[in-house]
Amino acid sequence: MAIVIREMLPSNRRLAFRRQPHLLDDSGSVGVWITQPAGMVVQLLRETAATGELARFISVDAYQKLVGVMRPGERAYFIYDMALMVRYETEARVVLTQWGLSVRDRIEHIVVRPPPEMNKLGRMGIQTIAAAMSLAGVQLDI
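Above: the chain's sequence. Below: its structure in token form.
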């Protein structure tokens, strides 16, 4: 699997960690590492659109893996490396916002790395999530 992932990455792109992701979405576009203390690092491994399907992979599959290693009452850190996101669909924003609000008591901090060349609409989508999470008492840095 290591060879497959490295082949998918642009030549100047590196994995978040030396070890392979704990989870990959079906397309191989999203890698997820579960950390200790409790945390989840999500990295786009190649240029991809943030779709509802991708959002559900993060909010259901990856989150359930994280919850499986969390201690009772523990709060998690979430780091999203979205530098290779080419489009941010409304469905993804809705799914991630609703999920984030539903698990806000389990979130310690969220950090999002947006694409360097993100269009105004995509940046507004991320800022919408940040505003909703902030109103719910969750710290989110972009």
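The chain has a mean pLDDT of 87.
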